[in-house]
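Side project, low priority. Logging it here so it doesn't get lost.
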Amino acid sequence: MSLTAAVRAPDRDARIAHIAERANWIRRRSLRMVFDAQAGHPGGDLSAADILATLYFGVMRYDAARPNDPARDRFILSKGHITGAFYSVLATAGYFPESELDTYLQPLSRLNGHPNRMYLPGIETNTGPLGHGFPVGVGIAIAGQIDRADFRTYVLTGDGELQEGSMWEAAMTAGHRKLNRLTVIVDRNRLQQGMGTEETVALEPLADRWRAFGFAVEEVDGHDVARLLSVLEAPPENRDKPLCVIAHTHKGQGVSFMQDKASWHHGVPTAAQFATAMKELEL
């Protein structure tokens, strides 16, 4: 039995509490990885933690002991730089030992700065250059549609990533093919490297743009685990189009000096800052 299947047994309140606990653990573990490695992207790690925890510990169908099971749901981290959070999720989901997180970014480590499917189980495709992961996810969803398979494909993107033209080419294809088993989640923290998304290349009205490309759209608080769970686990058979979930988040969520600061897109806390952050993220 996979960890996800085990989590689904208790009542809904217990599921939500477990997911929230996992999300906070992901924040703490990923921040420690960045601090120890003296490199990383902590702002995005923290903004996406609730989304990742909800997918892996409340929604997705997978078995870490059989990472290539054809029936598995697929997840693609299109914003491939938030590996602190992603590797934390994969380890606690059982894809590799949690102790290996201590090797993050070290020479010869399997835990690179961007995910590599040749190194670790549970990674569907290599990502890093923005605008690549979502098109691959659309291709996977098309393959599933052709095979009449029932797996679902989930893609997590950054909002700054939506400034890449390849994202909208893929969206146009997904809408045209009515890929109802495809869900794209936008980590809408409104910040990218250097400044806000709207100051760089404006994305609003973002929901209307996705609808124009043939998507159903749900806007949610990306830190509200209960709401994320309701939207992400909703049966795809209830719609005839792909789903875009715009998850409104805060970069650096949970850490006062990082929250909503573009400067923490990447960066490393000092020892004093790290101690403050871990105190603020205590369970």
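Brief comment: The two ends are 27 Å apart (CA to CA).
Revisit when time allows.
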